[in-house]
Amino acid sequence: MMLNSSEKFPTPDATEHFVEQINEQLSQGIFDAENSQLLEGMVEALADKRGLVRLSLVEAFGKIGQPAVPFLVEALTHHSNPVVRRSSAKALAKIRQPDTISHLIGAMVKDEDTVVRSSAAGALAGIGSAALPALLEVIAGEYPEPVKGQATWAIARAGVEAVEPLHLALKSDKTDIRLAALEGIAKIAEEHGDELSQNAILSVLQDDDLEVRLEAIASLSRFPSQVALPKLIPLLEDDNLEVVQRAILALGKLGEPEVLPILQAKLAEKREGIAQFVKIAISQLKCR
After folding, report:
1. Is 214 a domain residue?
2. Would you say residue 79 lies in a domain?
3. Which residue spans traverse the membrane (predicted)?
4. E strand intervals along 44-109
5. Is the pLDDT score of 2 beyond 50?
6. Is residue 43 part of a domain?
7. Per-residue DSSP letters for 84-100?
8. Which domain holds residue 23?
9. pLDDT tens per residue across span 14-49
10. Theoretical Cys-Cys bridge with 177: which of 30, 133, 172, 185, CB 3.0 to 4.6 Å?
11. CATH code of residue 275
12. ∠130-136-140 over CA atoms, to 5°?
């Protein structure tokens, strides 16, 4: 049974004193992680209106680790106060335990509070590759687009250790899963210069699914220019108008001055909307 925060901490000063005691015990190595009443009190203190107090408690939970998980999961799942649920998800993000994945997924897809959902997504991203199967199930499932968007966001931030399962997901027959995998692979390629990830994206530039193809083209703007330019420039002559538009925007984002004459030549393009996209790309180049 969770303690009532108004009874446990009747004043802000009482909460602050409690948090100071917790931090002092942790710094001295004398915190009793088996004291359930103490951990319940910490959870209830997450209702404090002061962000710095809640942050201090979240950091403390991160130091406590596994013993705090059942109390945080209970609060995330059942607490009536959304502020407590939000901070519980953030505390679980510090602990990064795979056995919390199902609870975090539940919060991400079901909680009525948008901050709770985004905090749960952040915790899932922190867990990394272990959370990918559950996140991909959300992508493939019958969930609202905002929920799928948060799952995609988490997948994209799962880290370089997720590269192999993401490559497998890129071969899925489901477009939503492949798009989410592309986002994650592109981020890994950008941040780590991973050649395998770059090649995986290059391999779907001529994909049969236009949506996948367009996302792959957009991803090239995050690549080194020596890799992206030889792939993007030929796409300016593609028969598909959307492909040409996406390639133009990617060239603008790359910011390489050498493509300016190529883009300027496309201003004479007669196909609808191309010249307007070229102007946007040129303005991006000139702003760099």
Report:
1. no
2. yes
3. none
4. none
5. no
6. yes
7. HHHHHHHHHHHH--GGG
8. 1-95
9. 899 999 999 999 999 999 999 999 999 999 999 999
10. 172
11. 1.25.10.10
12. 160
